[in-house]
Design a protein that fits this description.
Strand content: 35-45%
Radius of gyration: 28 Å
Number of strands: 14
Oligomer: single chain
Low-confidence stretches: none
Number of helices: 0
Shape: elongated
Mean pLDDT: 84
Helix content: under 10%
Largest sheet: 8 strands, parallel
Order of helices and strands: EEEEEEEEEEEEEE
């Protein structure tokens, strides 16, 4: 009836088997956190269309259209194609049309092409050859005929 010494330990609760994953259930993805810009280094040359929902920092050479939320063309960067972004900062070279709400051509920039913008700043010693057209929605497709309308 009574025992001296150790008291018996209560039995361990039964282990529950893990629930099997449903084969059709897709894993839930965590919301994408904003990170720094995607960088195209000076030693990179790309041919084709480049699209990003975030920021792009281009220091290499791109032959093709570029679309991003924000774009910076570095001093060694060069783009041959159309550029579409909310904000564009050019320190290097762009040969093609630029469509952006805010465009900044920094000292040393070389742009050959039309610019459709809501806000435009051109620093001294920036080279610009083309037409400029103010637009309420510069990211929308421009009418045929370019900036001459």
């Amino acid at each position: 009836m009574f025992t001296k010494g150790k008291t018996p330990e209560p039995p361990a609760p039964p282990q529950l088997a893990p629930k099997p994953a449903l084969p059709d259930a897709a894993p839930k993805r965590a919301p994408v956190a904003r990170s720094g810009p995607s960088i195209i280094s000076a030693d990179v040359k790309m041919v084709g269309k480049l699209v990003s929902t975030g920021e792009l920092d281009i220091n290499g050479q791109i032959e093709g259209d570029v679309r991003a939320s924000a774009l910076t063309v570095g001093e060694t960067g060069a783009i041959k194609g159309e550029v579409v972004a909310e904000s564009v900062v050019v320190r290097g070279t762009v040969e093609g049309r630029i469509r952006a709400r805010k465009v900044q051509l920094c000292s040393g920039a070389k742009v050959r092409g039309d610019i459709f913008h809501a806000s435009l700043a051109i620093e001294p010693n920036a080279i610009f050859e083309g037409a400029v057209k103010h637009a309420q929605d510069p990211m929308a497709e421009p009418p045929p005929g370019g900036a001459t309308s």
